[in-house]
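Appendix B: a complete holo record

For completeness, this appendix reproduces one full record from the ligand-bound portion of the collection. The bound molecule is adenosine-5'-triphosphate. The inputs are the chain sequence and the ligand SMILES; the output is the full three-dimensional arrangement of the complex, encoded as structure tokens. No fields have been trimmed.
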Amino acid sequence: MSLATSNVFPVSFIEAESLKKTYTPRGASPVHALDGLDLAVPQGTVTALLGPNGAGKTTAVKVLTTLVTPDSGTAVIDGIDVIAHPERIRPIIGVSGQYAAVDENLTAFENLDMVGRLYHLGASASRARARELIELFDLTEAQNRPVKGFSGGMRRRIDLACALVTRPRVLFLDEPTTGLDPRSRLGMWDIITTLVGEGTTVLLTTQYLEEADQLADSISVIDDGKVIAKGTSDELKASIGGQRVELSLVSPDDSTAAREILVRHGSGEPTVTADGRALTVTADDAPAALQRILAEFGSSGIQLFDAGMRRPTLDDVFLKLTGRSATVDDESPATTKKKAKR
Ligand SMILES: Nc1ncnc2c1ncn2[C@@H]1O[C@H](COP(=O)(O)OP(=O)(O)OP(=O)(O)O)[C@@H](O)[C@H]1O
Ligand SMILES: [Mg+2]
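The structure of the chain with adenosine-5'-triphosphate bound, as generated:
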């Protein structure tokens, strides 16, 4: 499904073209945080910006949320020029930043109530909205405690809740689930999915491939300040082609010999994990390649711990496009395999 046909609103709600932003820290060489970034997010959809540390994700969000002025390029949200009219953008957007921006000394309830009042919702409407969000984010127990005593996960939740006080039509979420435990992450995904179902347009950044896979209608892979690939999760996986044959060895001493066998039967360079135990290779006809590989392992006496094949994951896409893994822990293909089998 292409971006153009995957939704009923053909016009992009968020549009950025050729955004550039260079930082020149004193005494250091310039950093091109954004180097010609293009984005188009249709209304009522989720677009994920997926990229490694330093790719420019937060800078892109800062530009689109009026916190940073780009050196050049254009950004438009709902037909409003972000750079020329930041004051018209701020009332229609909600932002939950990479680092929670709540008042530490206020309670969860007071933070939400304060945001409502800052946006002139009125006293009783602010309180009512605060109560609604406390419930939605499962913060009832903690609502009267100062935020400074909150855990990281609770902070993420109160921060997102604050971004939703005004029911914004467009929501920017910079790594919304970093630091959340698996249950809280699923809860956050549910909330985001519900908001999108209600018509909210979401741009989120993430380093979790699985998150982009689950939530996003479209994924823009960014690296060095520009989009290096975009499409649905399936399109991106299909774009790199081929299935993967994966093997793990009983002994890393067999790594070199095993690699040579994979070179003969796969297409392209095999990847080998740092410990030398797990190897992966792309193959156009994976079942046939796997059979041939197993036969050669048998005759060479290489002992296998595990062998199998799988379709490409978003991690493979990332690895292929950027030459490195996108996952936070810089996971090896072996760890990725577990994830893919989830
Ligand atoms: N205020 C700043 N001054 C100098 N350099 C900056 C500033 N903000 C960002 N950068 C640099 O710009 C580049 C992009 O940073 P950015 O925060 O946008 O990356 P990111 O993709 O959000 O990374 P992460 O995954 O670590 O959050 C990095 O090299 C960063 O060091
Ligand atoms: Mg960031």
